[in-house]
UniProtKB/TrEMBL annotation:
CDD domains: CysQ (cd01638). SUPFAM superfamilies: Carbohydrate phosphatase. This is Inositol monophosphatase. It holds the Pfam family Inositol_P. It comes from the Bacteria. The lineage of its organism: Bacteria, Bacillati, Actinomycetota, Actinomycetes, Kitasatosporales.
Length: 272
């Protein structure tokens, strides 16, 4: 997963596509920012789902036509909670409102993401944070950037000096996964300096790529909440695996992204 190709005409074309994709997520983020500010109240699960869908639809009305024009033959992942391998070819993996529940609660941790996947390899990604105006981008083999400035993971080499983070993969998660999350947090509380737990996963992975935190892990997960940050972390010099240290792919049951100096210790802690 996340192989590095040689520079080709295709890669140069992908760089141009990434620029257009970044413009698209910025435009969608502006539309969502106009809807942000007041806590959206809901009394039932149905009302919650309706409010979430309204945000998604607002962003998708901008993203879908723009991204489809860029790659007309690419497929579109309809469910942002889907996981596993994709069929052959190119696919847009988009989360129109990553951290949607936070948006509804007037919390600042949300974003818009779009990733082009080719033959199950992420080619490029753009993540926009509308409240700060920041845009994170990564192109396979060409590095990770924040508004054009190169990103680098942390040089920290000891888990005991590290800030680490985790997130829940989805609501109504399987009990076995929930208990594994709880056990892993307890283990990290003993071994790491600080443990942060919050959603969404993408924002934690931005912090790992930028060297602000040292590791992020999650059990289970969807393509849309892991692929953008995974590519950013790898292109910023980080290390990717499952929680047992094996190579990660979208079918893996766990995920770990870390600065190289703390990766092995993080694996040891999560494997206890």
């Amino acid at each position: 997963m996340l192989e590095t190709p040689q520079t080709t005409d295709v890669a140069r074309d992908d760089a141009a596509l990434l620029g257009e994709t970044a413009n698209a997520v910025r435009a969608a983020g502006s539309a969502l920012r106009e809807r942000f500010g007041e806590v959206v109240r809901y009394r039932t699960r149905q009302e919650l789902m309706h409010a979430l869908a309204a945000n998604d639809d607002t962003a998708l009305e901008i993203l879908r036509p723009r991204l489809t024009r860029l790659r007309p033959d690419a497929g579109w992942v309809e469910d942002e909670l889907d996981g596993g391998a994709l069929p052959p070819g190119e696919w847009w993996v988009v989360d129109p409102a990553e951290g949607n529940v936070n948006h509804l609660h007037a919390l600042p941790e949300w974003a818009v993401t779009a990733t082009l996947v080719r033959e199950n390899q992420p080619v490029f990604t753009a993540v926009h944070l509308p409240l700060t105006g920041e845009t994170y981008t990564a192109l396979t083999g060409a590095g990770a950037y924040l508004d054009g400035r190169p990103l680098h993971v942390s040089p920290t080499a000891e888990l005991g000096l590290s800030i680490v983070a985790t997130s829940q993969a989805r609501p109504d998660e399987d009990e076995r996964v929930v208990r594994r999350v709880g056990d892993s947090i307890t283990a990290m509380l003993f071994d790491a300096l600080v443990v942060r737990t919050a959603v969404p996963a993408t924002l934690h992975l931005l912090d790992v790529a930028a060297g602000r935190t040292d590791a992020f892990w999650q059990f289970a997960g969807a393509r849309a909440d892991l692929l953008p940050g995974a590519l950013l972390v790898v292109e910023a010099g980080g290390k990717l695996s499952d929680a047992e240290g094996r190579p990660w792919n979208p079918q893996s049951e766990s995920f770990l992204a870390a600065a190289p100096g703390v990766h092995a210790e993080a694996v040891a802690t999560l494997s206890r």
